[in-house]
């Protein structure tokens, strides 16, 4: 299991790992963090991936907007980077192999951040979904990028997968892609806060649509 939790010293969120002999637990956390770039704001939103050759990877967001910068979710002045990083893991799926690689970062169109990565592979193409802007504003959305190599370079799609106003949704984000990329789950505003939705994707080569 990959998870984000608060690290007391330094006071920031970091990526941890935990193991169990059964899917339902109990899980035992490892003694050290998998990723904890404290000077960059910490790390959140981990998601695991197993490639066709059996190698294990995890993607996560460097939480630069936690360092400040104003606005509804921090970093409104653009002071801090919020890159998506990729870490290769050993066969035990918890031990880092080499240094992490930055595979995606925000552009001016993404507002103060990108976050919530989910990595899959379909038809030889690596696809990473992500959210842009702030979840507590209607600008929150779901985008994606593709690459022919797991380490990139990744090319962002010209249009997001989901925006506020489509299908009556407000602030869709936090998508997780199913293996093969034909389905995804995500959250969006409901009267009680945030609700979970599902969607089916169609593909025209490297271009996806809901």
Distance between the termini: 29 Å
Q: How is the biggest beta sheet arranged?
A: 4 strands, antiparallel
**Residue share in helices?**
under 10%
- What's the architecture in CATH terms? 5 Propeller
Q: SS-based structural class?
A: mainly beta
Rg is 17 Å
Proportion of residues in β-strands: 35-45%
> Count of DSSP helices?
0
- What's the average pLDDT? 95
CATH class: Mainly Beta
Q: What string gives the helices and strands in order? A: EEEEEEEEEEEEEEEE
Q: Shape, please?
A: globular
Family: Belongs to the glycosyl hydrolase 43 family.
Pfam families: Glyco_hydro_43
InterPro entries: Glyco_hydro_43, Glyco_hydro_beta-prop_sf, Glycosyl_Hydrlase_43
Protein name: Glycoside hydrolase family 43 protein
Description:
- This protein has 210 residues and is mostly beta strands.
- It has one domain (2-209): 5 Propeller (Tachylectin-2, Chain A), CATH 2.115.10.
- 0% of the residues lie in helices and 45% in strands.
- It is built from no helices and 16 strands.
- Strand 8 and strand 9 form a beta hairpin.
- The radius of gyration is 17 Å and the shape is globular.
- The model has no long low-confidence stretch (mean pLDDT 95).
- The record marks 45 as: Important for catalytic activity, responsible for pKa modulation of the active site Glu and correct orientation of both the proton donor and substrate.
């Amino acid at each position: 299991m990959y998870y984000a939790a608060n690290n007391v010293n330094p006071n920031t969120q970091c990526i941890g790992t935990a193991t169990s002999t059964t899917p339902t637990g109990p899980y035992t956390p490892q003694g050290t963090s998998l990723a904890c770039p404290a000077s960059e704001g910490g790390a959140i939103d981990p998601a695991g991936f197993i490639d066709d050759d059996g190698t294990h990877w995890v993607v996560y967001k460097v939480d630069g907007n936690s360092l400040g910068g104003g606005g509804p979710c921090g970093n409104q002045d653009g002071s801090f980077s919020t890159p998506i990083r990729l870490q290769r893991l050993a066969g035990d799926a918890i031990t880092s192999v080499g240094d992490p690689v930055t595979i995606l970062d925000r552009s001016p169109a993404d507002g103060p951040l990108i976050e919530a990565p989910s990595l899959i592979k379909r038809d030889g193409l690596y696809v990473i979904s992500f959210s842009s802007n702030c979840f507590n504003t209607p600008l929150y959305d779901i985008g994606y990028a593709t690459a022919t190599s797991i380490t990139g370079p990744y090319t962002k799609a010209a249009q997001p997968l989901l925006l506020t106003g489509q299908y009556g949704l407000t602030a869709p984000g936090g998508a997780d892609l199913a293996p093969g990329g034909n389905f995804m789950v995500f959250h969006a505003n409901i009267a009680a806060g945030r609700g979970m939705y599902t969607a089916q994707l169609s593909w025209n080569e490297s271009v996806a649509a809901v």
